[in-house]
Amino acid sequence: MSPTTNPNPDLMRIFDFTAADLEANRAGKMSDGQKQQLLHIAQSQKDDAGCLIWLMTPGYIFLACIALQAFGSGNKTYALIFVGVITALLFGQAAMLYDSHYRNHLETDVVVSEFEQVQGLLQPIIKKSWYRARQIENEYLRIGQMDIPIKKSVYKALQGFLATQSEVPTCRIYYVPKSLQIIAAEIVE
Q: Contact 130/180 with Cβ under 8 angstroms?
């Protein structure tokens, strides 16, 4: 496809971009709509984390009071259990805050307004990993020599899209480098 060819409507739906977004990317720029979309994702994740932190604080206070009461009554076993629970919750909260680096990457991607592209065959894959002593599955888009993390809904939509194709198309994916968020895609010949 030439750079002036209309974008594929299925890829537009799957990766949530417009024809104007793709034209801007082809011209080497990130569109204002793409910047707003990345900021919206970052803000919604920040709001979720902040809300959870505020909701958990009264629970910490309550557990700390119970632990102090148990310790004061001489029941050190219960006190240690509550201290252990509080510690585990705090580690979980710390992990959640550490994960906020992804939000910072999104915001950096918007400020810098740079993106990269990779070209190759589309291949939605699942990678298995271990998290807190259990195996989990993460969805990725493999294109060229790169694996880009994607949402489960994007993974399923890509599988459906590829099932309608007579052969796996060669595509160009535009993505922001820090957060690896896909901002546009097009089929190339």
A: no
Q: Are 118 and 144 in contact (CB under 8 A)?
A: yes
pLDDT tens-digit series, residues 59-112: 767 777 776 777 777 777 777 777 777 777 777 666 666 555 556 666 776 666
CB within 8 Å of 94: residues ≥ 6 apart: none
User: 17 is written with which tokens?
Assistant: 């971009």
Element (H, E) at 150: none
Diameter over CA atoms, the chain: 78
Contact indicator for 141, 122 with CB cutoff of 8 Å? yes
Is the Cα dihedral 186, 15, 149, 127 positive or negative?
Answer: negative
pTM, to two decimals: 0.67
| 3-class DSSP state of 102 | helix
The SS3 call for residue 97 is: helix
Report the distance separating Cα 27 and Cα 17, nearest Å: 15
Positive/negative CA dihedral, 52, 53, 54, 58? positive
23 φ, ψ (degrees, to nearest 5): -60, -40
